[in-house]
Amino acid sequence: TLDAAASDDNALCDLYYTKEDDGAVQDWEGFTVYCNPPFDAKSLQAFTQKAIREVSNGVLTALHVPAKTDQPWFHWLWERYQAGVWRVEFRWIQGRVKYVGNKDNAPFPSLTVILGPGGKS
Question: pTM for this one?
Fold first, then answer.
């Protein structure tokens, strides 16, 4: 498993890309990927687009993202879910996540999106 957006301090997998590596442009083929990208709009778009592109390479990705249903990247994922061509699962997280290094819980809800080959089950 590959952690596509980590740091030396928070990587969840032995193999990971840091901000300096820019996991959104690295090769993910052959891996199952976990990705908790930075939550700025540019990063969320870049990592979502990367996960979508990697489906054609057989890559299964778990994207942990803010539940911002008004954002373009969320709509890209939702459209693929609606089409039913790929495996797209939305795993809504109850409550607010408290991220490492933060005193308080996030001021927004979060979800994990599973994206990969195979249609709806």
Answer: 0.90
- DSSP at 117: S
C-alpha–C-alpha distance, residues 77 and 49, integer Å: 9
User: Containing domain of residue 83, as a range?
Assistant: 2-116
Token pair listed for 118:
């195979």
Q: In 3D, which of 14, 51, 12, 47 has the Cα closest to residue 29? A: 51
Interstrand relation of 60-66 and 110-116 (parallel, antiparallel or unpaired): antiparallel
* Per-residue model confidence as pLDDT tens digits over 51-69: 999 999 999 999 999 999 9
Token pair 């498993």 is found at: 1
Question: If you ran DSSP here, which 8-state letter would residue 93 be given?
Answer: P
34 lies in some domain: yes
**64 found inside a domain:** yes
The answer as to whether 121 is a domain residue is no
